[in-house]
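Progress narrative, Year 2. Work on DNA primase/polymerase bifunctional N-terminal domain-containing protein from Streptomyces rimosus subsp. rimosus advanced from sequence curation to structure prediction during this period.
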Amino acid sequence: MNEPWTAPPGDGTAVVPIGDVWDVVEAPAETAAWVRQLRRVEAPAIVDPRQGRAWWLIPRGSANPTAWLWHQLQPTVVVRTSGSLIVPHAARSDGLRWVKPHPWGGTYLAQPERLAAVLTLLRSATAARRASVSPFYARGDTDAGPG
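Result:
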């Protein structure tokens, strides 16, 4: 299902080309936290808390940005099939790092259909939540307290 690929050993980072072994799915870091809680994606995300971004690696050729699977998630989710990505080494624990699901079977590449399904679910839930919150309207005078 997933091609074998592992993060480099150590605690540094490496610039790795996108599209040689894997493609990339990018989303807000907050999304990665929700994906991890749902436990439906068995691969870790690369998270950069300073940028507030997260990246999942998926098998090469499965991130066609125009495919309906990914197109419906734009612009929040971006897929990349070329370029490069700074990848943390396996033991890195600060800053740019791997955030692994529990339990984790050691696979670094996510299953694209499963990842897209979870991202779609999260997008739908967020849209439904926004639609159910009524806007605040000021009522009466602006003075507070008994009058």
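Strands lie at 13-17, 22-28, 45-48, 53-59, 78-80, 84-88, 97-99. DSSP finds three helices and seven strands in the chain.
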